[in-house]
Specification:
CATH topology: Ribbon-helix-helix fold
Number of domains: 1
Structural class: alpha+beta
Strand order of the largest sheet: 1-2
Radius of gyration: 12 Å
Helix content: 55-70%
Largest sheet: 2 strands, antiparallel
Shape: globular
CATH superfamily: protein bp1543
Low-confidence stretches: none
Number of helices: 3
Mean pLDDT: 92
CATH class: Mainly Alpha
Strand content: 15-25%
Protein backbone atom coordinates (compact mmCIF):
# COMPACT_ATOMS: atom_id res chain seq x y z
CA UNK A 1 0.00 0.00 0.00
CA UNK A 2 1.39 3.37 -0.98
CA UNK A 3 1.91 5.74 1.93
CA UNK A 4 3.16 8.60 -0.22
CA UNK A 5 1.00 11.67 0.31
CA UNK A 6 -0.11 13.38 -2.89
CA UNK A 7 -1.41 16.94 -2.88
CA UNK A 8 -3.92 17.60 -5.64
CA UNK A 9 -5.98 20.59 -6.58
CA UNK A 10 -9.75 20.05 -6.70
CA UNK A 11 -12.73 22.26 -7.36
CA UNK A 12 -15.59 22.08 -4.92
CA UNK A 13 -18.58 24.37 -4.63
CA UNK A 14 -17.16 26.63 -7.34
CA UNK A 15 -13.77 27.24 -5.72
CA UNK A 16 -10.39 25.56 -5.99
CA UNK A 17 -8.69 24.02 -2.99
CA UNK A 18 -5.95 21.50 -2.45
CA UNK A 19 -6.33 18.16 -0.77
CA UNK A 20 -3.54 15.94 0.56
CA UNK A 21 -4.20 12.20 0.67
CA UNK A 22 -2.13 9.06 0.49
CA UNK A 23 -2.02 7.54 -2.99
CA UNK A 24 -4.07 4.54 -1.79
CA UNK A 25 -6.93 6.88 -0.82
CA UNK A 26 -6.77 8.68 -4.18
CA UNK A 27 -7.06 5.32 -5.97
CA UNK A 28 -9.99 4.21 -3.81
CA UNK A 29 -11.72 7.58 -4.23
CA UNK A 30 -11.33 7.31 -8.01
CA UNK A 31 -12.89 3.81 -8.00
CA UNK A 32 -15.80 4.93 -5.80
CA UNK A 33 -16.48 7.96 -8.01
CA UNK A 34 -16.44 5.77 -11.12
CA UNK A 35 -18.87 3.27 -9.54
CA UNK A 36 -21.15 6.15 -8.54
CA UNK A 37 -20.93 7.70 -12.01
CA UNK A 38 -19.60 11.05 -10.74
CA UNK A 39 -16.33 12.92 -11.02
CA UNK A 40 -13.85 12.90 -8.15
CA UNK A 41 -14.51 16.64 -7.72
CA UNK A 42 -18.27 16.00 -7.42
CA UNK A 43 -17.73 13.21 -4.89
CA UNK A 44 -15.41 15.40 -2.80
CA UNK A 45 -17.99 18.20 -3.00
CA UNK A 46 -20.63 15.81 -1.60
CA UNK A 47 -18.27 14.83 1.23
CA UNK A 48 -17.49 18.50 1.90
CA UNK A 49 -21.18 19.35 2.35
CA UNK A 50 -21.58 16.98 5.30
CA UNK A 51 -18.16 17.02 6.92
CA UNK A 52 -17.55 18.20 10.42
CA UNK A 53 -13.80 18.77 10.40
CA UNK A 54 -10.77 18.67 8.15
CA UNK A 55 -11.58 17.81 4.52
CA UNK A 56 -8.70 15.35 4.08
CA UNK A 57 -9.78 13.46 7.19
CA UNK A 58 -13.41 13.51 6.07
CA UNK A 59 -12.43 11.99 2.71
CA UNK A 60 -10.38 9.25 4.39
CA UNK A 61 -13.26 8.36 6.71
CA UNK A 62 -15.73 8.37 3.80
CA UNK A 63 -13.52 6.00 1.78
CA UNK A 64 -13.06 3.70 4.77
CA UNK A 65 -16.80 3.59 5.50
CA UNK A 66 -17.64 2.90 1.84
CA UNK A 67 -15.10 0.07 1.65
CA UNK A 68 -16.39 -1.41 4.92
CA UNK A 69 -20.00 -1.24 3.67
CA UNK A 70 -19.02 -2.94 0.42
CA UNK A 71 -17.18 -5.68 2.31
CA UNK A 72 -20.26 -6.37 4.43
CA UNK A 73 -22.55 -6.79 1.43
Amino acid sequence: MSQTVKKRSVEIAGHRTSLSLEEAFWRALKRIAARDGVSINKLIEQIDRVRGGNLSSAVRIYVLERLEAEAES
